[in-house]
Amino acid sequence: MTRSHVTCLDCGTEFVRPKSYHGNYCLSCHEAWASDADDREPAEAGPRRLDRRTTPSVRRLDDDADAPSRYDEE
């Protein structure tokens, strides 16, 4: 396994990172950033807005039109 010596972009300390990790932050700075990111998330994050060319896969609850039957009438 190849390890490389990297300087943390946040605190400036040198640390050894394994080949599988491609970040440039030491473990303590990364954990601090991750906990801050959780605090920044809005509490009531709604669904993403769709592109105007995208057809939604579900209907809105306030649609008055009846949905077509999913099963054949026999």
Backbone shape: elongated
Structural class: alpha+beta
Q: How are strands sequenced across the largest beta sheet?
A: 1-2
Global mean pLDDT: 76
Stretches with pLDDT under 50, minimum 5 residues: none
Descriptive report:
- By secondary structure, this protein is α+β, with helices and mostly antiparallel strands.
- The protein has a domain at 4-37.
- The chain contains one helix and two strands.
- It has a two-stranded antiparallel sheet.
- Strand 1 and strand 2 (14-17) form a beta hairpin.
- It is elongated and about 70 Å long.
- The termini are far apart.
- The mean pLDDT is 76.
Topology:
Blueprint: E1 4-7, E2 14-17, H1 27-40
Antiparallel strand pairs: 1-2
Keywords:
single chain, 74 residues, alpha+beta, two-stranded antiparallel sheet, 1 helix, 19% helix
Brief account:
By secondary structure, this protein is an alpha+beta fold. It has a domain at 4-37.
